[in-house]
Automatic annotation (TrEMBL):
This protein's name: Ribosomal RNA large subunit methyltransferase E
InterPro entries registered for this protein in UniProt: RNA_methyltr_RlmE, RNA_MeTrfase_FtsJ_dom, rRNA-MeTfrase_E, SAM-dependent_MTases_sf
Keywords attached to this entry: Cytoplasm, Methyltransferase, rRNA processing, S-adenosyl-L-methionine, Transferase
Encoding gene (name): rlmE
Function: Specifically methylates the uridine in position 2552 of 23S rRNA at the 2'-O position of the ribose in the fully assembled 50S ribosomal subunit.
Cell compartments where the protein resides: Cytoplasm
Catalytic reaction list: uridine(2552) in 23S rRNA + S-adenosyl-L-methionine = 2'-O-methyluridine(2552) in 23S rRNA + S-adenosyl-L-homocysteine + H(+)
Domain Ribosomal RNA methyltransferase FtsJ: 28-204
One Gene Ontology cellular component annotation held by this UniProt entry: cytoplasm
UniProt xrefs under Pfam families: FtsJ
EC identifiers of the protein: 2.1.1.166
């Protein structure tokens, strides 16, 4: 089947994308690694010894970054309904983190600890219909926030990808109820035309 002009343009852009090329050189599974690296450079969320959960982790580039930054004294737990090739130093659980059995597996790995940080780069399967995609996206964001509320230690942090739309302000308000400070980040590796933005909640109340 012949590719459309749009998919051809995307493929051309992807092949020539400097972050894609850099990811291949650095051994990261996706260009998204550089979004987390840039945010972490500014906000120092992940350090030696940090215990964190990576929601919607596949294909694993954020888990790769996190595992390198937390060092041998930290812990990285990755959760996704999709399969993910193993990442050294990362405990991966495949399944829906809302399901009881998946949550039990996760809590068993935690061994009574609470998380310092929850990170989420989740995005829905795109239908191409803006209203549906926005609704699906914010539903994932709400699930991630609920998980963070339940699993973060007091003072813990939460980094989540959102897409600016009609639900954005309401979601910001919900985050402000949970965290002492909420700031937005738009890393350079995030494409200019994308409406994605990252919200960082600091200091769980």
């Amino acid at each position: 089947m012949a590719r459309s002009k749009t998919s051809n343009a995307w493929l051309q852009e992807h092949v020539n994308d400097p972050y894609v090329l850099q990811a291949q050189r650095d051994g990261y599974r996706a260009r998204a690694a550089y979004k987390l690296l840039e945010i972490n450079e500014k906000d120092k969320l992940i350090r030696q010894g940090t215990v964190l959960a990576d929601l919607g982790s596949a294909p694993g580039s954020w888990s790769q970054v996190a595992a390198r930054l937390v060092g041998p004294t930290g812990k990285v737990f990755a959760l996704d309904i999709l399969s993910m090739d193993p990442v050294p130093g990362v405990h991966f659980i495949q399944g829906d983190f809302r399901e009881e059995s998946v949550l039990e597996d996760f809590l068993a790995l935690l061994e009574g600890r609470q998380l310092d940080l929850v990170i989420s780069d989740m995005a829905p399967n795109i239908s191409g219909m803006s209203a549906i995609d926005q609704a699906r996206s914010f539903h994932l964001c709400e699930l991630a926030l609920e998980f963070a509320r339940e699993q973060l230690k007091p003072g813990g942090h939460f980094l989540v990808k959102v897409f600016q739309g009609s639900d954005f302000q309401a979601y910001m308000a919900a985050m402000r109820e949970t965290f002492q400070e909420v700031v937005s980040r738009k890393p350079k590796a995030s494409r200019d035309r994308s409406s994605e933005i990252y919200l960082l909640g600091r200091g769980r109340r």
